[in-house]
Design goal:
Helix content is 6%, strand content 58%. It contains 2 helices and 12 strands.
């Protein structure tokens, strides 16, 4: 009687890779907020205002990497070019039906551009708190091998939970 009450508990661990292979150093990552671009809808027949989202349009999305030390990975990500990163994680789940603790793969692919780097501070026997801030132009999230989100700002892709919300727009534009 398994898989009835899955309790999604926590991220067990993760790794970050650049350009399809090389593992980046130890860091914490802050994933982006996804905020839709909106326009205010108001007028006759509406009891007030509605911030109406524009299909496929998002505000700037940032990825922050908080490093333990100032190192060559920080400066590589400052190069004025796109950087492809892959974040591979393993989530812990508790199956209340079977009593088993299981893991589930989460993979996040991003294409980023350098935006800012805080080189941190030097204190003996302490982390430097160096930070890289990257602009995301592409993101894809897969959970247990299933793509659940894909946003490609330059190629008219806005895929959420099985639906490409820009498919009709691409068709309207003859793309």
């Amino acid at each position: 009687m398994g898989n009835i009450n899955i309790v999604r508990d926590k991220l067990i661990n993760f790794e970050v890779f650049i350009a399809g292979g090389r593992k980046l150093g130890m860091a914490d990552i802050t994933l982006p907020s996804i905020e839709y671009k909106t326009a205010t809808l108001s007028g006759a027949g509406i009891g007030g205002e509605i911030e109406m989202p524009t299909p496929g349009h998002t505000a700037s999305m940032e990825l922050e990497i908080n490093w333990r030390t100032l190192n060559e990975d920080v400066t590589k990500l400052l190069a004025m070019k796109a950087h492809d990163l892959e974040i591979r994680g393993s989530n812990e789940q508790y199956d209340a039906g079977t009593g088993e603790i299981k893991s589930e793969a989460v993979k996040i692919n991003v294409r980023t551009l350098p935006k800012k780097s805080d080189t941190g501070s030097y204190k003996p026997a302490d982390h430097t708190d160096t930070k890289s801030t990257l602009e995301i132009i592409y993101i894809k999230i897969a959970v247990a091998g299933k793509v659940v989100l894909e946003i490609d700002k330059l190629n008219y892709i806005h895929f959420v939970d099985g639906v490409d919300f820009l498919a009709s727009v691409k068709s309207d534009l003859g793309l």
